[in-house]
Amino acid sequence: MLRKSYPYYLANRPVAANTDLEVLDKYSGKRATRIAFADAATVRKGIASAHKAREAMAAFPPDARRDVLEHCVRRFQERQEELALALCIEAGKPIHDARGEVLRLIDTFRIAAGEATRGDGEVIELDVSERARGYRGMVKRVPIGACAFITPFNFPLNLVAHKVAPAIAAGCPFVLKPAPKTPIGALIIGEVLAETNLPKGAFSILPCSNDDAGLLVEDPRIALLSFTGGLIGWDLKARAGRKKVVLELGGNAACIVDADPGIDLDAVVQRLVFGAYYQSGQSCISVQRIFVHKDIAKPLRKKLTEAVKGLKMGDPRDERTFIGPVVDDGAADRIESWIDDAVKRGAKRLAGGKRNGRMIAATLLEDVPHGCDLYKREAFGPVAMLETFGDFDDALDRANASDFGLQAGVFTARLDHAMCAWDRLEVGGVIVGDVPSIRVDNMPYGGVKASGLGREGVRYAIEDMTERRLLVIKS
After folding, report:
1. Model confidence over 47-103: pLDDT tens digits?
2. 397: how many CB neighbours lie within 10 A of its CB?
3. Which of 61, 123, 255, 332 has the CA that lies 20 to 30 A from 78?
4. How far is CA 61 from CA 57, 231, 349, in A?
């Protein structure tokens, strides 16, 4: 069970300033716990503390950063079930999915520990002309300074980990604003960090209002803003001034199933079900649009429809549950309205569509008009759309006909089709032989178009959190 209340963390220390933030059990709708909620003055203190800690964090030795991260790995392993239950309650995440996210949290900190002592310096040959003879160049990477992180509700552990762990490895102090709907996981991470010898001011974890979080966006003492969330991120970038900005803003991922998908059709269906309905579709890389070749459309449609109808919806604590609640009533209202609108405009409902409070049954639609919100925008719910194609190039064109470009999946046995997809799909990542809903925590992850800019993945985040400093020596 959760504790009755949790403090926030200001300059490495727990502060039980109040219990103003109520966190709900997303399945029952009842209060699960209460959280200290930071005000604007506290956010300013967090920024000031991080700014003051820049030199101490930069001087904190790489092996000491590694030791901090390895301590976190050990403590997260010891607290795995506690962390999984917190996810299950605060996010409504089915317990088997919650356990998987805890493992990814551990992986991300472990990867960061390995990167902390890597350095990645380089020697540059400057003898490019007679004028430059006798000069030698070397480059090292130095921490960028204080960072601000804003994370969403859907991965309360792993999306926090992908900002926090690289920051520690890079030697950057930070202020984190976790999503107020799901702050508990981040605060447990803060509790573990507080056990370490990080320099004072190295971290603050402050649930706060969106208005007060504007300080993290606009304050010039912040050197980097990393935001994961909705399209509001582009507005934040416009307000951020000269600081570096990294944005991960979602998608409406496509998955193409070729005439010969390269694996058994039952295996394709199994992966499509996972990709579309894992944690009720509340993932930026959830499968939303499925394009299937006309030669296999009939058997795939039948198998996929049966599989979707068989998914168990219910209490996320139940080991058998696959579909849990969406995050709140507003999300359920929106998803339901988008489904109803698509059906009214001619889409065929193959499975699901029923709603019970925050629970929306896994839904599969066919031939959704391309002008519908459900087709154009990010559903962020347990719904996928099926349509057929005859020409592979046409399928690529349809996949690209989106404002988003995060990841795409392609099932094909043809190497030329796989390489063509890699060349032509306007996304940050192409996954061949699986759904786009795959993220390995050391790979570059991020999108193009409206999906954002920059890349996460531990090594790539560290690159953003550090700057190249050149040394030139005349010999």
Report:
1. 999 999 999 999 999 999 999 999 999 999 999 999 999 999 999 999 999 999 999
2. 12
3. 61
4. 8, 38, 58
